Amino acid sequence: MLYYEPIPISARDQTLMNLLDEQYTRMPFYGVRKMTRYLQERGYSVGKDHVRTLLRFMGLQAIFPKKNLSLPHPQHTIYPYLLREVEITRPNQVWSADITYIRLIEGFAYLTAVIDWHSRAVLSWRLSNTLDTSFCVEALQEALSKYGSPEIFNTDQGSQFTSQAFIHELTSRAISVSMDGRGRCLDNIFIERLWRSVKYENVYLYGYQTIPEARSGLAVYFERYNKERFHQALGYKTPWQIYRGQEISELITKYDVFEKRTLAVKTQEAILH
């Protein structure tokens, strides 16, 4: 269990980070220069080097490729992107994970989640006050233990996802590893859309003060997101209806077969008697 601890960052930088997070959620294609101009127009005297430092600290980058931003660990293996022109047709075909910055009244946190691409269902998630590897591995382990293994798992090239601990959880189960091209969040577009929904529909509205409070509120949100939030792209069904639909159909089919066999046996018994 992770608990909130005060993070040594100035109140001014905290305000700047919250503004950067809001603008990034609206305009994920903004780079350092545009973000700097955005803050300056809001009355903050800040240079692009400091903005770049804050964006890196938050784990944010614009969606187009650029040099020397959010680099992976130099000793970690980078895997190719496997999903270009691949048709996603079923649950557990492709899962993905990502990390986003979550603002709090008393600091900030990082949120990671594992989602199923076909259904948009959130399979697991974790909050942390640091960008370490362990909370990402824990979220992955929970999803695998509850829902089995996907065919392909996609992430960005962040050091959390290229780490030996994370990759081992995938390769030991013969799951194909796919990674976005550097700086291309559109390669992982479904989870980027999830972050936008989480922030506008929950985080920005409730203004959580601490990590325990955010964890409690997000637990309610993700439960409703999976089971109550209708998606136009899913034919106005919920993620859980799509994700569990195949399983439910299989159960109905098995029940129908059982009923037909039972009826056939009773009919035969009636004829014999």
Notes on the structure:
By secondary structure, the chain is of the alpha/beta class. The chain has a domain at 11-58. Helix content is 48%, strand content 13%. The chain contains 9 helices and 5 strands. Strands 3-2-1-4-5 form a 5-stranded mixed sheet, sandwiched between helices. Helix 1 (11-26) crosses helix 3, helix 2 (32-41) crosses helix 3 (48-58) and helix 7 (189-206) crosses helix 8 (211-227). It is globular, with a radius of gyration of 22 Å. The protein starts with 10 loop residues before the first helix and ends with a helix.
Helix and strand layout, with pairings?
Layout lengths: L10 H16 L5 H10 L6 H11 L35 E11 L2 E10 L5 E7 L5 H14 L4 E4 L3 H4 L1 H8 L4 E4 L9 H18 L4 H17 L11 H34 L1
Parallel strand pairs: 1-4, 4-5
Antiparallel strand pairs: 1-2, 2-3
Helix pairs in contact: 1-3, 2-3, 7-8
- Total helix count? 9
Arithmetic mean of pLDDT: 84
**Strand count, sense and closure of the main sheet?**
5 strands, mixed
The main sheet orders its strands as 3-2-1-4-5
Shape: globular
Flag low-confidence runs: 1-6, 64-71, 247-255
Distance between the termini: 66 Å
Oligomer: single chain
The helix/strand series, from N terminus to C terminus, equals HHHEEEHEHHEHHH
**Alpha carbon gyration radius:** 22 Å
Strand content bin: 5-15%
Report the helical percentage.
40-55%
- By secondary-structure content and strand pairing, the structural class works out as alpha/beta
Number of strands: 5
